[in-house]
Amino acid sequence: MKAIILAGGYATRLRPISYVIPKLLFPVVGKPMVHWTLDMLKKFGVNEVILGVNYLADLLRAELGSTYDGMHVRYSLEKTPLGTAGPIKLASHLTKLHGTFLAMNGDVIADINIRRMLSHHLKTEASITDALHEVMDPRRFGVVELDSAHRILRFVEKPNLNEAPSRLANAGIYLIEPDVLRMIPDDRKFSLERQIFPGLARQRRLSGFTFPGYWFDIGNLSDYQRANFELLSRKAGKSTLQEKRSKVSNRSALRPPVYVGRGSRIESGSSLGPFVLIGKSGQVGKRTRITKSIIFDEVTIGEGSRVDGAVIASNVTIGKNVKIERGSTLSPYVQVGDGVRIGENAVVHPYKEVATNVSPGKHVM
Ligand code: GDD
Ligand code: MG
Protein backbone atom coordinates (compact mmCIF):
# COMPACT_ATOMS: atom_id res chain seq x y z
CA MET A 1 0.00 0.00 0.00
CA LYS A 2 1.03 3.59 -0.62
CA ALA A 3 0.71 6.36 1.95
CA ILE A 4 0.62 10.13 1.65
CA ILE A 5 1.67 12.16 4.66
CA LEU A 6 0.51 15.76 4.86
CA ALA A 7 3.69 17.47 5.92
CA GLY A 8 3.20 21.07 4.88
CA GLY A 9 1.62 24.04 6.60
CA TYR A 10 3.34 26.66 8.71
CA ALA A 11 2.84 25.20 12.22
CA THR A 12 2.03 28.69 13.48
CA ARG A 13 1.09 27.43 16.94
CA LEU A 14 4.57 25.98 17.40
CA ARG A 15 6.37 29.22 16.64
CA PRO A 16 9.00 30.43 17.14
CA ILE A 17 10.70 27.00 17.17
CA SER A 18 8.86 26.03 13.97
CA TYR A 19 10.41 28.95 12.10
CA VAL A 20 13.56 26.86 12.04
CA ILE A 21 12.45 23.26 12.60
CA PRO A 22 9.52 21.78 10.65
CA LYS A 23 6.86 20.38 12.95
CA LEU A 24 7.43 16.84 11.73
CA LEU A 25 11.04 16.98 12.87
CA PHE A 26 10.25 18.00 16.44
CA PRO A 27 11.67 15.19 18.58
CA VAL A 28 9.30 12.92 20.45
CA VAL A 29 11.04 10.56 22.87
CA GLY A 30 14.30 10.31 20.97
CA LYS A 31 13.13 10.46 17.37
CA PRO A 32 11.52 13.02 15.08
CA MET A 33 7.73 12.94 15.08
CA VAL A 34 7.70 11.73 11.46
CA HIS A 35 9.68 8.62 12.43
CA TRP A 36 6.80 7.55 14.69
CA THR A 37 4.51 7.74 11.67
CA LEU A 38 6.93 5.99 9.31
CA ASP A 39 7.56 3.21 11.85
CA MET A 40 3.82 2.68 12.17
CA LEU A 41 3.32 2.61 8.39
CA LYS A 42 6.20 0.18 7.96
CA LYS A 43 4.66 -2.16 10.53
CA PHE A 44 1.54 -2.45 8.38
CA GLY A 45 3.33 -3.13 5.12
CA VAL A 46 3.35 0.29 3.48
CA ASN A 47 6.13 0.29 0.88
CA GLU A 48 5.97 3.77 -0.59
CA VAL A 49 5.47 7.04 1.26
CA ILE A 50 4.89 10.40 -0.36
CA LEU A 51 5.34 13.45 1.78
CA GLY A 52 3.25 16.44 0.74
CA VAL A 53 5.60 19.30 1.54
CA ASN A 54 6.08 23.02 1.11
CA TYR A 55 7.42 25.13 3.98
CA LEU A 56 10.92 23.98 5.14
CA ALA A 57 10.73 21.05 2.70
CA ASP A 58 14.51 20.92 2.28
CA LEU A 59 15.04 20.13 5.94
CA LEU A 60 12.59 17.22 5.79
CA ARG A 61 14.28 15.91 2.69
CA ALA A 62 17.73 16.23 4.26
CA GLU A 63 16.59 14.29 7.33
CA LEU A 64 14.71 11.48 5.62
CA GLY A 65 16.34 11.07 2.20
CA SER A 66 14.79 8.66 -0.28
CA THR A 67 14.41 5.49 1.78
CA TYR A 68 13.37 4.77 5.32
CA ASP A 69 13.61 1.26 6.71
CA GLY A 70 13.16 -0.19 3.23
CA MET A 71 10.25 2.06 2.25
CA HIS A 72 10.59 4.43 -0.70
CA VAL A 73 10.18 8.02 0.41
CA ARG A 74 9.22 10.66 -2.15
CA TYR A 75 8.41 14.32 -1.89
CA SER A 76 5.56 16.11 -3.55
CA LEU A 77 6.40 19.79 -3.42
CA GLU A 78 3.63 22.40 -3.54
CA LYS A 79 4.43 25.83 -4.92
CA THR A 80 1.87 27.28 -2.55
CA PRO A 81 0.15 25.42 0.30
CA LEU A 82 -2.73 23.33 -1.11
CA GLY A 83 -4.55 22.55 2.15
CA THR A 84 -5.32 18.97 3.12
CA ALA A 85 -6.90 17.65 -0.12
CA GLY A 86 -4.82 19.52 -2.72
CA PRO A 87 -1.56 17.74 -1.74
CA ILE A 88 -3.24 14.35 -2.24
CA LYS A 89 -4.25 15.30 -5.77
CA LEU A 90 -0.77 16.62 -6.48
CA ALA A 91 0.80 13.39 -5.17
CA SER A 92 -1.43 11.38 -7.52
CA HIS A 93 0.48 12.92 -10.44
CA LEU A 94 3.78 11.78 -8.97
CA THR A 95 2.81 8.17 -8.33
CA LYS A 96 -0.01 6.00 -9.64
CA LEU A 97 -2.72 5.57 -7.04
CA HIS A 98 -4.68 2.58 -8.36
CA GLY A 99 -5.96 0.81 -5.29
CA THR A 100 -6.95 1.86 -1.79
CA PHE A 101 -4.30 4.17 -0.36
CA LEU A 102 -3.64 5.74 3.00
CA ALA A 103 -3.38 9.45 3.71
CA MET A 104 -2.74 11.08 7.04
CA ASN A 105 -1.94 14.25 8.89
CA GLY A 106 1.75 14.33 9.67
CA ASP A 107 1.20 15.77 13.12
CA VAL A 108 -0.56 12.85 14.74
CA ILE A 109 1.01 9.92 16.57
CA ALA A 110 -1.34 7.00 16.83
CA ASP A 111 -1.39 3.45 18.06
CA ILE A 112 -3.77 2.24 15.37
CA ASN A 113 -4.12 -1.11 13.64
CA ILE A 114 -4.18 -0.24 9.93
CA ARG A 115 -4.82 -3.86 8.98
CA ARG A 116 -8.04 -3.83 10.97
CA MET A 117 -8.95 -0.44 9.58
CA LEU A 118 -8.47 -1.81 6.05
CA SER A 119 -10.71 -4.79 6.58
CA HIS A 120 -13.32 -2.44 8.05
CA HIS A 121 -12.94 -0.20 5.01
CA LEU A 122 -13.36 -3.05 2.52
CA LYS A 123 -16.40 -4.41 4.39
CA THR A 124 -18.22 -1.08 4.45
CA GLU A 125 -17.38 -0.32 0.80
CA ALA A 126 -16.99 3.35 1.65
CA SER A 127 -15.09 5.78 -0.58
CA ILE A 128 -13.16 6.99 2.47
CA THR A 129 -12.75 5.50 5.92
CA ASP A 130 -11.82 7.98 8.59
CA ALA A 131 -10.15 6.90 11.84
CA LEU A 132 -11.93 8.39 14.85
CA HIS A 133 -10.84 9.00 18.40
CA GLU A 134 -12.81 10.21 21.38
CA VAL A 135 -11.70 13.60 22.72
CA MET A 136 -12.63 15.81 25.66
CA ASP A 137 -12.98 19.05 23.72
CA PRO A 138 -14.25 18.58 20.16
CA ARG A 139 -13.88 22.22 19.14
CA ARG A 140 -10.32 21.83 17.88
CA PHE A 141 -11.15 18.92 15.61
CA GLY A 142 -13.38 17.57 12.90
CA VAL A 143 -16.30 15.89 14.64
CA VAL A 144 -18.73 13.25 13.36
CA GLU A 145 -22.12 11.76 13.88
CA LEU A 146 -21.84 8.00 13.47
CA ASP A 147 -24.63 5.43 12.97
CA SER A 148 -24.64 1.85 14.21
CA ALA A 149 -23.32 0.61 10.85
CA HIS A 150 -20.25 2.86 11.32
CA ARG A 151 -21.37 5.25 8.63
CA ILE A 152 -20.58 8.89 9.18
CA LEU A 153 -23.88 10.76 8.81
CA ARG A 154 -22.41 14.18 9.42
CA PHE A 155 -18.90 15.69 9.48
CA VAL A 156 -18.39 19.12 11.05
CA GLU A 157 -14.92 20.73 11.06
CA LYS A 158 -14.07 22.75 14.22
CA PRO A 159 -17.64 23.02 15.55
CA ASN A 160 -18.81 25.24 18.39
CA LEU A 161 -19.59 23.23 21.51
CA ASN A 162 -23.31 23.34 20.84
CA GLU A 163 -22.89 22.26 17.20
CA ALA A 164 -20.62 19.28 17.92
CA PRO A 165 -22.56 16.14 17.02
CA SER A 166 -20.44 13.97 19.38
CA ARG A 167 -17.02 13.77 20.97
CA LEU A 168 -15.72 11.50 18.21
CA ALA A 169 -12.98 13.41 16.45
CA ASN A 170 -11.37 12.90 13.09
CA ALA A 171 -8.00 11.40 14.00
CA GLY A 172 -6.50 12.54 10.68
CA ILE A 173 -5.85 9.04 9.26
CA TYR A 174 -7.74 7.97 6.14
CA LEU A 175 -8.12 5.05 3.74
CA ILE A 176 -9.14 6.42 0.39
CA GLU A 177 -10.44 4.95 -2.87
CA PRO A 178 -8.87 6.48 -5.98
CA ASP A 179 -12.26 7.61 -7.39
CA VAL A 180 -12.23 10.36 -4.74
CA LEU A 181 -9.33 12.01 -6.59
CA ARG A 182 -11.80 13.18 -9.23
CA MET A 183 -13.48 15.36 -6.60
CA ILE A 184 -10.28 17.32 -5.90
CA PRO A 185 -9.30 20.09 -8.33
CA ASP A 186 -5.72 20.44 -9.57
CA ASP A 187 -3.38 23.17 -8.33
CA ARG A 188 -5.85 24.73 -5.95
CA LYS A 189 -6.09 24.89 -2.18
CA PHE A 190 -8.76 22.39 -1.20
CA SER A 191 -9.87 20.97 2.13
CA LEU A 192 -10.75 17.35 2.81
CA GLU A 193 -12.51 18.30 6.01
CA ARG A 194 -14.57 21.19 4.66
CA GLN A 195 -15.02 20.39 0.98
CA ILE A 196 -14.97 16.60 0.65
CA PHE A 197 -16.12 14.95 3.87
CA PRO A 198 -19.45 16.75 4.44
CA GLY A 199 -20.72 15.81 0.96
CA LEU A 200 -19.44 12.23 1.16
CA ALA A 201 -21.18 11.90 4.53
CA ARG A 202 -24.48 13.03 3.00
CA GLN A 203 -24.03 10.42 0.27
CA ARG A 204 -23.21 7.78 2.93
CA ARG A 205 -19.81 7.13 1.33
CA LEU A 206 -17.83 8.03 4.46
CA SER A 207 -17.16 5.38 7.07
CA GLY A 208 -15.79 5.77 10.60
CA PHE A 209 -13.29 3.48 12.30
CA THR A 210 -12.84 3.94 16.03
CA PHE A 211 -9.70 2.56 17.63
CA PRO A 212 -8.75 2.00 21.26
CA GLY A 213 -5.01 2.84 21.29
CA TYR A 214 -3.38 6.14 22.13
CA TRP A 215 -3.62 9.12 19.83
CA PHE A 216 -1.80 12.44 20.05
CA ASP A 217 -2.41 15.43 17.87
CA ILE A 218 0.48 17.84 18.10
CA GLY A 219 -0.85 21.30 17.41
CA ASN A 220 0.74 23.48 20.06
CA LEU A 221 3.49 23.29 22.65
CA SER A 222 1.31 21.89 25.39
CA ASP A 223 0.10 19.06 23.07
CA TYR A 224 3.73 18.50 22.23
CA GLN A 225 4.76 18.25 25.87
CA ARG A 226 1.87 15.95 26.70
CA ALA A 227 2.78 13.59 23.82
CA ASN A 228 6.40 13.43 24.97
CA PHE A 229 5.62 12.89 28.62
CA GLU A 230 2.93 10.27 28.04
CA LEU A 231 4.94 8.33 25.47
CA LEU A 232 7.99 8.54 27.72
CA SER A 233 5.96 7.11 30.61
CA ARG A 234 4.73 4.29 28.39
CA LYS A 235 8.21 3.46 27.12
CA ALA A 236 10.27 4.02 30.24
CA GLY A 237 7.77 3.23 32.97
CA LYS A 238 9.60 3.51 36.26
CA SER A 239 13.07 3.38 34.74
CA THR A 240 15.44 5.49 32.70
CA LEU A 241 15.91 5.14 28.96
CA GLN A 242 19.51 5.67 28.11
CA GLU A 243 20.74 5.43 24.53
CA LYS A 244 24.09 4.08 23.41
CA ARG A 245 27.20 6.18 23.91
CA SER A 246 25.52 8.37 26.49
CA LYS A 247 27.35 8.84 29.74
CA VAL A 248 25.56 9.48 32.99
CA SER A 249 27.76 10.07 36.02
CA ASN A 250 27.02 7.64 38.83
CA ARG A 251 27.08 10.63 41.11
CA SER A 252 24.03 12.12 39.47
CA ALA A 253 20.40 11.37 40.29
CA LEU A 254 17.89 10.34 37.65
CA ARG A 255 14.25 10.35 38.72
CA PRO A 256 12.21 8.37 36.19
CA PRO A 257 10.83 8.68 33.72
CA VAL A 258 13.90 10.13 32.04
CA TYR A 259 15.27 9.78 28.53
CA VAL A 260 18.94 10.41 27.72
CA GLY A 261 19.78 10.48 24.00
CA ARG A 262 22.74 9.02 22.16
CA GLY A 263 26.09 10.58 22.98
CA SER A 264 24.76 12.82 25.75
CA ARG A 265 26.78 13.45 28.91
CA ILE A 266 25.34 14.08 32.34
CA GLU A 267 27.89 15.20 34.89
CA SER A 268 28.15 14.54 38.60
CA GLY A 269 25.89 16.13 41.16
CA SER A 270 23.20 16.83 38.62
CA SER A 271 19.62 15.75 39.03
CA LEU A 272 17.24 14.95 36.17
CA GLY A 273 13.54 14.19 36.30
CA PRO A 274 10.89 13.29 36.63
CA PHE A 275 9.79 13.82 33.01
CA VAL A 276 12.98 14.94 31.38
CA LEU A 277 14.05 14.17 27.82
CA ILE A 278 17.53 15.01 26.59
CA GLY A 279 18.22 14.63 22.86
CA LYS A 280 21.39 13.55 21.09
CA SER A 281 24.86 14.86 21.97
CA GLY A 282 23.68 16.97 24.88
CA GLN A 283 25.76 18.10 27.82
CA VAL A 284 24.48 18.72 31.31
CA GLY A 285 27.06 20.23 33.64
CA LYS A 286 27.73 19.56 37.31
CA ARG A 287 25.05 20.24 39.92
CA THR A 288 22.45 21.13 37.31
CA ARG A 289 18.82 20.34 38.09
CA ILE A 290 16.25 19.68 35.38
CA THR A 291 12.60 18.78 35.85
CA LYS A 292 9.67 18.33 33.45
CA SER A 293 11.49 19.58 30.37
CA ILE A 294 12.15 18.65 26.77
CA ILE A 295 15.65 19.32 25.53
CA PHE A 296 16.33 18.79 21.80
CA ASP A 297 19.63 17.65 20.25
CA GLU A 298 23.04 19.25 20.86
CA VAL A 299 22.11 21.40 23.80
CA THR A 300 24.71 22.40 26.39
CA ILE A 301 23.63 23.39 29.87
CA GLY A 302 26.33 24.80 32.14
CA GLU A 303 26.96 23.79 35.74
CA GLY A 304 24.74 24.86 38.59
CA SER A 305 21.84 25.71 36.30
CA ARG A 306 18.20 25.00 36.99
CA VAL A 307 15.61 24.20 34.31
CA ASP A 308 11.97 23.55 35.10
CA GLY A 309 9.05 22.96 32.74
CA ALA A 310 10.84 24.29 29.66
CA VAL A 311 11.19 23.38 26.01
CA ILE A 312 14.75 23.96 24.81
CA ALA A 313 15.30 23.47 21.08
CA SER A 314 18.40 22.18 19.31
CA ASN A 315 21.83 23.79 19.44
CA VAL A 316 21.02 26.01 22.40
CA THR A 317 23.91 26.88 24.69
CA ILE A 318 23.18 27.78 28.29
CA GLY A 319 25.84 29.16 30.60
CA LYS A 320 26.52 28.46 34.27
CA ASN A 321 24.07 29.14 37.11
CA VAL A 322 21.25 29.99 34.74
CA LYS A 323 17.67 29.70 35.90
CA ILE A 324 14.99 28.81 33.38
CA GLU A 325 11.53 28.91 34.84
CA ARG A 326 8.33 27.05 34.07
CA GLY A 327 6.72 27.38 30.65
CA SER A 328 9.72 28.98 28.94
CA THR A 329 10.62 28.25 25.33
CA LEU A 330 14.14 28.59 23.94
CA SER A 331 14.40 28.37 20.15
CA PRO A 332 17.25 26.82 18.13
CA TYR A 333 20.73 28.35 18.43
CA VAL A 334 19.87 30.61 21.36
CA GLN A 335 22.76 31.44 23.69
CA VAL A 336 22.15 32.27 27.31
CA GLY A 337 24.93 33.90 29.34
CA ASP A 338 26.06 32.93 32.85
CA GLY A 339 23.77 33.79 35.76
CA VAL A 340 20.82 34.82 33.59
CA ARG A 341 17.31 34.19 34.84
CA ILE A 342 14.59 33.48 32.28
CA GLY A 343 11.18 34.05 33.85
CA GLU A 344 8.06 31.92 33.58
CA ASN A 345 6.50 31.61 30.12
CA ALA A 346 9.22 33.67 28.45
CA VAL A 347 9.93 32.94 24.79
CA VAL A 348 13.29 33.44 23.11
CA HIS A 349 13.38 33.53 19.30
CA PRO A 350 15.97 31.65 17.19
CA TYR A 351 19.63 32.76 17.26
CA LYS A 352 19.18 35.33 20.06
CA GLU A 353 21.94 35.94 22.59
CA VAL A 354 20.57 36.56 26.03
CA ALA A 355 22.93 38.28 28.45
CA THR A 356 20.49 39.82 30.94
CA ASN A 357 17.46 38.55 32.83
CA VAL A 358 14.24 38.03 30.89
CA SER A 359 11.06 38.91 32.75
CA PRO A 360 8.15 36.45 32.92
CA GLY A 361 6.07 36.26 29.75
CA LYS A 362 8.50 38.37 27.74
CA HIS A 363 9.34 37.55 24.12
CA VAL A 364 12.95 38.14 23.13
CA MET A 365 12.88 38.62 19.36
N1 GDD B 1 1.22 19.58 2.30
C1 GDD B 1 0.44 20.33 3.05
N2 GDD B 1 -0.03 21.51 2.53
N3 GDD B 1 0.16 19.95 4.29
C2 GDD B 1 -0.64 20.75 5.03
C3 GDD B 1 -1.15 21.97 4.57
C4 GDD B 1 -0.82 22.38 3.24
O1 GDD B 1 -1.23 23.43 2.72
N4 GDD B 1 -1.88 22.54 5.57
C5 GDD B 1 -1.82 21.69 6.61
N5 GDD B 1 -1.07 20.61 6.30
C6 GDD B 1 -0.78 19.44 7.13
C7 GDD B 1 -0.25 19.80 8.50
O2 GDD B 1 1.16 19.73 8.52
C8 GDD B 1 -0.84 18.70 9.36
O3 GDD B 1 0.01 17.57 9.39
C9 GDD B 1 -2.13 18.30 8.66
O4 GDD B 1 -2.01 18.79 7.33
C10 GDD B 1 -3.39 18.89 9.31
O5 GDD B 1 -3.30 20.29 9.36
P1 GDD B 1 -3.45 21.11 10.71
O6 GDD B 1 -3.29 22.54 10.39
O7 GDD B 1 -2.58 20.53 11.76
O8 GDD B 1 -4.99 20.86 11.03
P2 GDD B 1 -5.70 20.74 12.45
O9 GDD B 1 -4.85 20.00 13.42
O10 GDD B 1 -6.19 22.07 12.85
O11 GDD B 1 -6.98 19.83 12.09
C11 GDD B 1 -6.83 18.61 11.39
O12 GDD B 1 -6.38 17.58 12.25
C12 GDD B 1 -7.28 17.19 13.31
C13 GDD B 1 -6.68 16.00 14.02
O13 GDD B 1 -5.40 16.27 14.44
C14 GDD B 1 -8.17 18.23 10.77
O14 GDD B 1 -7.95 17.13 9.94
C15 GDD B 1 -9.20 17.89 11.84
O15 GDD B 1 -10.42 17.46 11.24
C16 GDD B 1 -8.66 16.78 12.72
O16 GDD B 1 -9.58 16.47 13.78
MG1 MG C 1 -2.90 19.44 13.52
Name the descriptors.
365 residues, alpha/beta, eight-stranded mixed sheet, eight-stranded parallel sheet, 6 helices, 35 strands, elongated, binds guanosine-5'-diphosphate-alpha-D-mannose, binds magnesium ion
> What is the helix content?
10-25%
Low-confidence stretches: none
Which structural class is indicated by helix and strand composition?
alpha/beta
How would you classify the quaternary structure? single chain
Bound molecules: guanosine-5'-diphosphate-alpha-D-mannose, magnesium ion
Mean pLDDT, all residues: 97
Number of strands: 35
Total number of helical segments? Answer: 6
| Cα-to-Cα separation, first versus last residue | 45 Å
What is the gyration radius calculated from CA atoms? Answer: 22 Å
Q: Sheet bearing the most strands, described?
A: 8 strands, mixed
Order of strands in the sheet with the most strands?
5-6-4-1-7-12-9-13
Strand content: 25-35%
What is the fold's blueprint, element by element?
Blueprint (H helix, E strand, L loop, with lengths): L1 E5 L20 E2 L2 E2 H11 L4 E6 L3 H8 L2 E2 L2 E7 L8 H7 L8 E5 L2 E3 L3 H11 L3 E7 L7 E5 L5 E6 L10 E9 L15 H11 L3 E5 L4 E3 L3 H16 L3 E3 L4 E2 L4 E2 L3 E3 L4 E2 L4 E2 L3 E3 L4 E2 L4 E3 L1 E3 L4 E2 L4 E3 L2 E2 L4 E2 L4 E2 L4 E2 L4 E2 L4 E2 L4 E2 L4 E2 L8 E2 L1
The site of magnesium ion has 4 residues, from loops.
